[in-house]
Amino acid sequence: MVLSASDIVNASILIVDDQDANVLLLERMLRGAGYASIASTTASHAACELHRKNRYDLILLDLQMPGTDGFRIMECLKAIELDGYLPVLVITAQPEHKLRALQAGAKDFISKPFDLPEVLTRIHNMLEVRLLYRESKHHRRVLEQTVHKLREAESGLRSTEASLSKEKAALDEYILQLRQANEHLVVATIKAHELADQVQAARDQMDYAAQHDALTGLPNRLLLQDRLGQAIEAARRQERPLAVMFLDLDRFKYINDSLGHAMGDQLLQSVAQRLKGGLRHSDTISRQGGDEFVVLLPNIEHAEDAALSADKILAALTPPHHIGGHALHISVSIGISIYPDDGQDTETLLKSADSAMYYAKNGRNTYKFFEQQMNARAIQRQSIETGLRRALERQEFVLHYQPVIHLLSGETVGVEALIRWQHPERGILLPEEFVPIAEECGLILPMGHWVLREACSQAQAWIQAGFPPITVAINTSAFEFRGKDFIENIRATLAETGLAPHLLELEITETVLMSDSVSTNSVLNALVGMGIKLAIDDFGTGYSSLSYLRQYPVDALKIDQSFVGQMTSSADSAAIVSAVISLGINLKKRTVAEGIETAEQHALLLALHCDEGQGYYFSPPVPAGEFAALLQSGVLPLSEHRHRDTI
Ligand code: C2E
Ligand code: MG
Ligand code: MG
Questions:
Q1: Which superfamily is assigned to 221-372 in CATH?
Q2: 418 lines ligand 1 (CB under 6 A)
Q3: How far apart are CA 354 and CA 591, in angstroms?
Q4: Which atom number of ligand 1 is nearest to the Cα of residue 480?
Q5: Does 419 sit in the ligand 1 pocket, CB within 6 Å?
Q6: In CATH, 382-639 is 3.40.1790.10
């Protein structure tokens, strides 16, 4: 805090004195000393008001004045200068007044008469003190204000700090939430990825399932079609052939029926494995369903390559399959079609291979290439199916009858009813041409009903015509046998026609016996219970398991004509015939030899103690009218040039 000389000389000074001369004198002294801001008054009562207005730095105050004296003025000044510091320099001639003046608030004295240096010194000192005081006061105020401001700032800072720390906490919380949200997001993202993977895996699985066979894992029909389509495209571009092989297992049905589906399934899996092993990686092996497989050979040079692959497949399937403690033998029939000769699209190629497979079936365990005439055959097959549907309504079926001869006595003891179809365009058709088709399309059931009724009423008619009663044998297909109303229909037909049940013999095939044993047993027992006889037709050609002979109440074994036909030329066939007859004798079953054509066969069968026989040697199957004539005249063994049906 530094006071300059100009601060002092510029200080404001008021002179209060009732005598003009004193005022003038003091003014002159002060101006002479350099003071610039000097006011004065001789009206003492105005002094206090002047100070209130102008706030002088120094008041030179005369004590003795008429009216308002110096003491009264100081009283008044105290009300203005609240801190009690009166900038008053008292002018007095009486020293006794000095103490009172000090008590009234005066700060110093100037004695009259004025001593110039003393007056100026006192004024200077007073001003210095006054200004310093004022300045310190100012600084104090400033300091106080600063302190106040600082306090405010501090409290502001504090509240800012508080709100900052609140905000920081909120921020921390927010960051934490963000972090957690981020973690959740990461977890969710991982989960989403996992889920997406799972969805993809499920989709892949579904795609796979849609294109593969569940049992064998092989491509299915759908995938094969796809690959075949692509292979045809490639073959077309490269001008190369390709081969399609249609495979059908031989006698799979018998195994499936006799050993159960579980084993059948295992066998199919085993076959699938062998097929895979026997073919190239680029080949597609697919399962079409059931026991059918299709193999696509996209990379062949010549048709002969397909024959090599077919040979490989046949060889691969030859060793027995060991399943459930059984050694199962299964062969396969293969039909082959070649692009572009046998078809230029998937459908035709598959159809051609399928047709060829049917031809291969005749030989079994073999393959056949497609030939154009097989197509004609397929068309013919189609027309037979259509024709069959109308044959029943139009009564185009007829039965022919073949006598069954008791070999020892030569008497006609029975008759076998054999169906024929009088086709409006093609003449008489034999069963082999239409029975398998009727079985496939289900028409075998109404056809069987018709045969049963026709045969029973015919047999009953002969009895009523006076002929001795003979057994009438009817061929039943496995499909009929499984029909729900099979037993009921027989019972009703016997009742309607009046034929005695013991005169009816049902010829069943080994297939029937091999099928589901519980229901088979109950149906067979029901038939036997009714007094009906049972014979096993084509004995020896089926899936050989002799145990069912003990199990089922069978009356007769019909020795298949293929053995009888060759028994005089083949020792093996003779041995089989001999064995079957021995079996019949031991198990107390009648033996009936089919297809006896020669006296030689007749003699041999007699020697082997075969009970009965039928064949061209005695008579071919003949229409009912002719059969009545035979009954009338008695059947005589005929010369060997008599052949086939009398049509
Ligand atoms: P199957 O029951 O074994 O009938 C014997 C077949 O041998 C008959 O053929 C008969 O004409 C023929 N045959 C008879 N004697 C001789 C002979 O000395 N030499 C030769 N080579 N053959 C002889 P068909 O009538 O053509 O019948 C064939 C098969 O059709 C039958 O075999 C039978 O399984 C089936 N069948 C015939 N009629 C019916 C029927 O009404 N219903 C059913 N489901 N199948 C029938
Ligand atoms: Mg028969
Ligand atoms: Mg037969």
A1: Reverse transcriptase/Diguanylate cyclase domain (3.30.70.270)
A2: yes
A3: 39
A4: 44
A5: yes
A6: no
